[in-house]
Amino acid sequence: MAEPSLFARFVALVGRGAVAIRHSGDGSLEPVYGTAPVIPVAKPQGKVPTLKMPTAKGWEGEHKPTAAAGLKVNAFARGLVHPRNMHVLPNGDVLVAESMGESGNPRTLFDHAMSATMQRARASGNSPNRVTLLRDADGDGVAEESHAYIENVRQPFGIVLVGETLYVGASDALLAYPYEAGATRIIEPARKLMDLVPGGHWTRNLIASKDGTKLYVAVGSLSNIGEKGMAAEENRACIHEYDLESGQSRIFASGLRNPVGMAWEPEKGMLWTVVNERDGLGDETPPDYLTSVSDGGFYGWPYCYWNRVVDDRVPQDAAKVASALQPDYALGGHTASLGLCWLPEGTLPGFPAGMAIGQHGSWNRSKLSGYKLAFVAFENGKPVGMPREVLTDFLSADEKYSYGRPVGVALAADGAVLMADDVGDVIWRVTGA
């Protein structure tokens, strides 16, 4: 990993000092998890919010994440460039979206500090803009083939195959490519199906309906709390439904600040997503969350959060607040839960059916959270209990360095759980020990 700049190191030092002063009297805040979280009262942080991020270090030698008891982990593939999300093809090949946030044009001093911090943490920079195909031809749990499958796509993230068409969610468009089973490269140009607005929260995840007639496209907000005006947030902070036959789209659900991972829960047939909530109100306020997504549902952003708690920093809309739906399950403040994958019972020994969640970790906390592959059990179509850890130790004990950062999660053809690690440049593979 490249050494951070002198300015980035200075920002990190100042940030640590500011965190120590600002949070000196807070005491230890327990992570806010579950279906009935007790969320601390908001403490607006003003124009200079808490800024804390580890320096990206990566894995060295045989160092790897720690798997939960009864499980083991191996590197399915190494040497990628910022892998973010995956899709497993019918023949077992794994497509990996390699991309990252663009550095942008910082204007204020805080913008410059944030930009330097994101680059030091390897959260932004020169995006690879590539989809790579990984193939484990001999079935030993390690991909021995790697091919540049699609190149020159602006920040690809979502990938889904429907019939003989492969769909890719780029930051600026929904794209369609002809798919040929077994091919290691697509050279045909994409068809643009839908324009998307780049910038801000840039990931554009995709999932297909069970009957393959529709795509759902997750688009995050441009800003934290709509501070650039709600006109700039049009068609953002929402999940779109795109009809593949008619070519028409509509907003399926809104008020979702940054929905990323999506998965179907099979018992009730509901779409679920993980959402990154707003910054600047405290370590655990409000929590990121896992929620079912109702057709036409509004989930509060930017006017309120969780159980219609009003965000006083935002010009209010009483009707919107009154219509806001409460999320199903709190995932802790600023965990940056990005990946989501349904695991049938027995996928991992000792784990029931539920959702695997890649928690990337974020910056607006005095004590970092996330940085793990977590699991939430489901019963009768709903999450229950507290999260369980599947993979941990992506972060150094002193929180100064990240060895890796979990993102997308997928179920491999052989039943193993795959997880993209965008700082370690690895796809990890989890199975029973």
Automatic annotation (TrEMBL):
Under the heading InterPro entries, the entry gives: 6-blade_b-propeller_TolB-like, Beta-prop_PDH, Quinoprot_gluc/sorb_DH_b-prop
- Write down the Pfam families for this protein, in alphabetical order: TrAA12 (PF22807)
Q: What SUPFAM superfamilies does the entry give?
A: Soluble quinoprotein glucose dehydrogenase
The residue stretches assigned to a coiled coil in this entry are: none
Domain Pyrroloquinoline quinone-dependent pyranose dehydrogenase beta-propeller positions: 66-430
According to UniProt, the name of this protein is Sorbosone dehydrogenase family protein
Annotated organism of origin: Chelativorans salis
> What lineage is on file?
Bacteria, Pseudomonadati, Pseudomonadota, Alphaproteobacteria, Hyphomicrobiales
